[in-house]
Amino acid sequence: MVVKTEIYFATRKTANAHVFIKKGVGKVRVNNVPIDMIEPEMAREVILIPLEISGELRNKIDVSVRVSGGGFMGQSYAAATAITRALIGWTKSKKDPKDHPFTKSIRTDLRKKIDEFDKYLISGDARRKEPKKFGGPGARRRKQKSYR
Length: 148
Known about the structure:
Blueprint: E1 7-12, E2 15-23, E3 28-30, E4 33-34, H1 41-54, E5 61-68, H2 72-88, H3 104-117, H4 120-123, H5 139-143
Parallel strand pairs: 3-5
Antiparallel strand pairs: 1-2, 2-5, 3-4
């Protein structure tokens, strides 16, 4: 019998991350590679931020992340946001996720902790949603004083 799990996703610049979360013993894999083998170390630390905030809950789940596109730091921030969304059960349609390893009360407490730490970890970069302003200076106009 195949257990259908929900996929949580996030993007950062051109990097896309998809996360599968299930009950387990605390294994974290990124692109099917254990988290301990991810280099550089800074990228690994960024990915582990939401799991460190969750504390003991980290040892009750297994997390599998699939990341593509962008650079290594964009991928790590996308993975961190996707892991955060998976931990709190964030869905685009605002519906309660089915078969989540944590109860609703645990997820709300975890969301409060994460919001206190960094409010952009759940929603991502706020500047991403803002469109370019019409009539603003272009790249050419900023660099030179005249067009001739």
